[in-house]
Amino acid sequence: MQTTVEPVARLIEEFAKLPGIGPKTAQRLTFHLLRLPAESSRTLAEALVHMKEATVLCSSCLNITDKDPCAICRGDVRDRTVICVVEEPLDVLAIERTRSFKGLYHVLHGAIDPLHGVGVDDIKVKELVRRLDGEVREVILATNPSLQGESTARYVANLIQPMGVTVSHLARGLPMGGDLEWADEVTLARALEGRRPM
Amino acid sequence: MPRPRSYRCEAVVLRRHDFGEADRILVLFSRERGKLRAIAKGSRRTTSRLAGHLELFTHAELQVANGRDLDVITQAEARNPFRALREDLTRTSHAYLVAELADVLTEDQAEQPEMFDLLLQTFSALEVALDPRLVVDHYSLALLGIVGFRPSLAVCLLCREELRPGLNAFSAMLGGALCPRCGPGEASARPIASDVLKVLRHLQRSGPPGTVRLRLAEPVAREVDRVLRDLAERHTERRLRSPDLIARLRSEAGESHPSAPQTPALPVEEGARE
User: Fold this and answer.
1) CATH class entry, domain B6-81
2) In 10 A of CB A196, how many CB atoms?
3) Which tens digit of pLDDT belongs to each residue from B110-126?
4) Which residue, B136, B134, B182, is CA-closest to B158?
5) Is residue B142 classed as helix, strand or coil in its secondary structure?
6) pLDDT tens for each residue of B192-210
7) CB-based contact A146 B56, cutoff 8 Å
8) A119 at B interface, C-beta within 8 A
9) Hey, which CATH number is domain B85-253, 1.20.1440.120, 2.40.100.10, 3.40.630.10, 3.20.20.70?
10) Residue of A nearest to B48 (CA)
11) Would the ipTM clear 0.85, i.e. be above it?
12) CA distance B102 to chain A (A)
């Protein structure tokens, strides 16, 4: 049986370790790169290495950054009395896109999920508690609206409420472009509870 | 006869993980087909029509298409989201343990209506229980019984002699209690307090979940938990993950109320007289 030569097989194997990439996709990516000029592979390889070497976690908000503290934590226009707590660095981007939040962030790097072995000590909660030094007046919990996200928010809230900060939570309700008929009862019940005067 | 292209089923979501761009793979426990896996495409998007109906612990009515590898959920409608389980961290952590036990102690694709009803009853009981711990203990004992690991609690496993209050022992490996004569010779056995054995026996005899009315002293409750956890871990040969979260939340709650009154040392309040 004809097998793939070692250098090619090795790259296929590396690609296949990435999330969402199965053996077939890994093969396609590898053979695509094989057909491109050597320069493209070098650029890709350099980008990969540079990405790891040139990034650190911001010592304050734990977001991924190239300069510590990160641009948001350094910014002069940010409101330092409000911290928005999110699960992942990508969530910071999502909230920044709204342009309606001017405070600081805190990235937990996960949510409590016992069935996948993520416990309280595996997420960056202690680091958040350490940041609540008196200047911070409000903490907004912006975890995902899933059971894991909600339990995490509840855990964090129980922990920091006694420290005298206002703890709030993103509203739960209906998404834009959604349809009432298809809404589940928990979402709909929360949308009703959180209704606002027009 | 060709296999039908899709089927309906009634199921509870036990576990799930993200898959691909916006999909999730779910482990479900269904009335019609026991434990099964299926994919919910696009369910991580906020506009997904499935997502809210497929949260963890939700009891839902599903339409599922037979897939080549994984079945695909095409419609879902929540029957009971067990909302109270989500809104209290202690209840949530105990529901995790129930879901984990249901997942590790059962096999794929076998019709198990009895187990399904037990699971629903347990979640309902957990929503209102004063002591969620007892509900989970009752569930694990009942589930162990259904899957064929019913521990022997009334007679000695080795000599079959009836157990009396005294220096009895318990072996999770052998799956039951031992009398004071057989216990010391068995390496896998550990001493078990008479109160603990009494509580276990009472739980084993009790009716549906939520009907157990006991008030346990903390050391007895802890020991009952440990025995049941040992049994489940021994039979599945894996470590349970949810008990860590339960223990952590309990210890933090204890630390923040150091002056909380101790539960009176009252092992069995009613109904457990031998």
Assistant:
1) mainly beta
2) 6
3) 788 899 999 999 999 99
4) B182
5) helix
6) 999 999 999 999 988 877 7
7) yes
8) yes
9) 1.20.1440.120
10) A178
11) no
12) 12
